[in-house]
Amino acid sequence: MVVGVQVGAAALLRAGDHEALSGIRKRAVAGAVAVGPLGLAGDEQADLSVHGGLSKAVYACPSEHYGFWCAQRQSWGLPTELPYGSLGENLALAGVEERALFVGDILSFPACRLRVTQLRTPCWKFNAVMGHPSAARLMLESGRSGFYLSVVEPGRIAAGQEFQVLAGPREVSLESMTVAARGRRR
After folding, report:
1. Residue 44: exposure state from Cβ atoms within 10 A (0-12, 13-18, ≥19)
2. Does the pTM of the predicted model rise above 0.90?
3. Domain that holds residue 167
4. 74 phi/psi in degrees, rounded to 5
């Protein structure tokens, strides 16, 4: 089920010596949102070399990960209130996690279809929004990165909608991508 739909405008983000425009801060949208080839209406990405475009038009994250992140923030002495969109995701989805998905799988919603394209590999911007310098590393190590989607059939999407996972070629799992990304970070 879609439990949250979020969009955000690109804005300046600072963390230590880093400063850049980013669209990582997302806010909930009420009602149905148009989904086009480049993503959700009203959503912006600042650095198109690593976010957005046809293959990374929509970023989805399992809503089940929020309990983990609230507990982490509590252990870091930070506020634990995290509304959907706090992880930078356009879609908070219940009932599907990275370990069950493969590149090419289709998420079929009532009025649009999205294809799984790749795992998210977080950068310093995630550290900035989570308020801790190890958040990006922990996201990857925990296997709670979320995933990018391309738009197969444009349409509209809204919180409360159900969806089905339609199996793609089942050749490259997101779990194998997580293992490979962990190896590159070491």
Report:
1. middle
2. yes
3. 2-185
4. -60, -45
C-alpha to C-alpha distances, 163 to 28, 62, 111, nearest whole angstrom: 19, 13, 10
Give the Cα separation of 92 and 180 in Å (integer).
25
Cα distances (angstroms) measured from residue 83 to each of 28, 80, 150: 8, 10, 24
- In the chain, how many domains are there? 1
Contacts of 101 (CB under 8 A, 6+ apart): 116, 147, 165, 173, 174
Report DSSP state, residue 102.
Answer: B
Q: Mean pLDDT by 10-residue block, N- to C-terminus, for the chain (186 residues)?
A: 97 88 94 97 88 93 97 96 96 96 98 97 92 94 96 98 97 92 71
Residue of 16, 165, 139 whose CA lies nearest to 86: 139
Tell me the C-alpha to C-alpha distance, in Å, between residue 14 and each of 73, 124, 131, 136: 19, 10, 11, 15
Identify the CATH number of the domain in which residue 134 sits.
2.40.33.20
How does DSSP assign 111-164, residue by residue? TEEEEEEEE----HHHHHHHTSTTHHHHHHHHT---EEEEEEE-EEE-TT---E
Q: Which helix (H) or strand (E) holds 181?
A: helix 174-185
Beta strand pairing status for 91-93 and 58-62? parallel
